[in-house]
Design goal:
eight-stranded mixed sheet, Rossmann fold, four-stranded antiparallel sheet, globular, 38% helix, 2 domains
Length: 314
């Protein structure tokens, strides 16, 4: 399907997020722009502190935007919204948080945690309908109705993350920001949670922004990948395109850090280290994010862009 035929569900345009004021101001996100198409999984990848979660939290209106705008289904959702629009955005865009232990209310039962959104938005006809919805969603995430009377501390990390997924799915959202939903889980549980997210995407036509720092996981679930470094986008491409032709040195460094299952090859592998001060000279030419063809966008100065084009297309 050509990109022109796809429907843009969420559009981020020239987004800045600044924390603090005056001399203490810190720009966590710097002039970020990208679109997410309806029904796709777009992954946002970068090391810790690169601004990934900040962008996710800006979409769900936890972090205010300092500049730029965020549009959902053609409507601006950043900045001030009417109460009606605000509620609509909250219902349609849900977030699965990174730490399932910290994002669940320890004093509430699982039934109340999952029902909270239903209560707030009156998404049930009567008490019987509410219980049916909660029991259905708890089964869908692989837990049992008898778990509903328990408290979060009685569950393992993987089970708590399933509760977090159930809490967002029960709202029947269109778009989910999944903020490193598997980084706190054991490797064996990760695949189960990823399969669960994929299942809901197919069944409900969901769109995901998947935030991660591990490229090996991202490869199996993403349609496209955005690579971010220190608040700026370095590269955007379809998944296989990015892995076949990583152009920006930061992307190469992330790919080189993926562990190889063979211990002998892993031992002899040379890690590629990204050193921006040595690799780029932006004193004469200003860098920008440029589409070099095939939907592949790279951040660089005009001379670097020519070099990347030659690497990609020969």
């Amino acid at each position: 399907m050509d990109n022109n035929e796809k429907q843009v569900l969420l559009s981020i345009q020239n987004l800045d997020v600044v924390f603090g004021r005056g001399k203490k101001a810190f720009k966590a996100v710097d002039n970020v722009s990208f679109d997410i198409y309806k029904g796709e999984t777009l992954s946002l990848v970068g090391e810790s502190g690169s601004g990934k979660t900040t962008i996710g939290r800006a979409i769900v209106r936890i972090n205010p935007c300092s500049a730029g705008a965020i549009y959902y289904d053609g409507k601006k959702i950043s900045g001030k919204l009417s109460r009606k629009d605000d509620r609509e955005v909250i219902r349609k865009i849900q977030m699965i948080f990174q730490d399932p232990a910290a994002s669940l209310n320890e004093r509430a039962t699982i039934e109340y945690i999952i029902s909270e959104g239903l209560y707030n938005f009156h998404l049930f006809k009567d008490e019987k309908d509410r219980i049916a919805k909660v029991e259905n969603v708890i089964r869908e995430v692989g837990l049992l109705p008898e778990h509903l009377t328990r408290y979060p501390h009685e569950f393992s990390g993987g089970q708590r993350q399933r509760v977090g997924i159930a809490r967002s799915i029960v709202m029947e959202p269109e778009f989910i920001v999944a903020d490193e939903p598997i980084s706190a889980l054991d490797v064996s549980i990760r695949a189960q949670v990823l399969n669960l997210l994929k299942k809901f995407q197919v069944e409900r036509g969901l769109t995901y922004l998947f935030i991660a720092h591990d490229l090996s996981i991202v490869r199996f679930i993403s349609d496209r990948i955005v690579v971010i470094y220190k608040g700026r986008i370095m590269e955007i491409a379809e998944t296989e395109e990015l892995f076949s032709y990583p152009l920006h040195p930061y992307t190469k460094s992330l790919i080189s850090a993926i562990p190889i299952p063979d211990p002998i090859i892993e031992k002899e592998k040379k890690l590629f280290v990204y050193e921006p001060e040595k690799m780029h000279d932006y004193s004469k030419e200003q860098p920008s994010l440029v589409d070099i063809g095939n939907g592949h966008m790279v951040f660089g100065s005009p001379s670097e862009i020519e070099k990347y084009k030659a690497q990609r297309f020969g």
